[in-house]
Design a protein that fits this description.
With about 200 residues, the protein is mostly helical. It contains eleven helices and no strands.
Length: about 200
């Protein structure tokens, strides 16, 4: 087995073990047994539990990079188009990785290693959201009473994972959460913007 294949096997196994036992209760020995490798292989390939968690989040960021093509912003001609494309891409990423992201958010306040992992991921995420705000400004869609810096704060408020998580915890479907977040973000960010619901656009 190649080093890359071993690493992938370890990460896949760690996610299954974390889901089954919880991040704090899970042990590296359980991960090793699930992956069919030695403990030394885990340490040499990835590291300890915090490194496993960081690598799993890195996989989420890679997935979001594939789903969320920043280059597509250059073709957006309205604020509604920018926000709907953003929300749709994020919804698919969040939906695929809901368990991992929810555990990261819930444990960040009580575990310093988890908080560090989340902070690194959020920094890159905020950078990408800032590009969306810049595009709103470029096409004249950003509200006149918002600077780009304030706009970045607002877009993070609506499009970070916590709002989606809270709505999901309240029993909302992904589609309901997406519609509501787009509507509220449009009101907060876009000049006189009214965004149609995704359900209204379904063919």
């Amino acid at each position: 087995m190649t080093a890359q294949a071993t690493r992938r096997r370890i990460l896949d196994a760690s996610l299954r073990v974390f889901q089954a036992h919880g991040y704090h209760e899970a042990t590296l020995r359980q991960v090793a047994e699930e992956a069919g490798v030695s403990l030394n292989a885990i340490y040499s390939s990835v590291g300890a539990k915090p490194q496993l968690l960081a690598e799993l989040l890195g996989g989420v960021m890679e997935d979001s990079g594939r789903e969320w093509d920043l280059a597509s912003l250059e073709t957006a001609t309205s604020g509604e188009e920018v926000l709907r494309a953003l929300a749709n891409a994020l919804r698919h990423v969040f939906e695929r990785h809901e368990w991992l992201l929810s555990q990261l958010m819930k444990n960040a306040s009580v575990d310093a290693s988890v908080a560090e992992t989340v902070a690194v991921g959020e920094a890159e995420y905020v950078r990408r959201l800032g590009r969306c705000v810049a595009r709103l400004a470029e096409i004249g869609a950003l509200r006149a009473d918002l600077t780009q810096e304030r706009g970045a704060d607002v877009i993070w408020f609506y499009f970070g994972f916590p709002p989606w998580l809270r709505l999901r915890d309240c029993g909302w479907s992904w589609g309901e959460a997406e519609d509501w977040i787009i509507e509220r973000a449009t009101e907060a960010l876009v000049v006189d913007g009214v965004t149609p619901r995704a359900s209204d656009l379904a063919v």
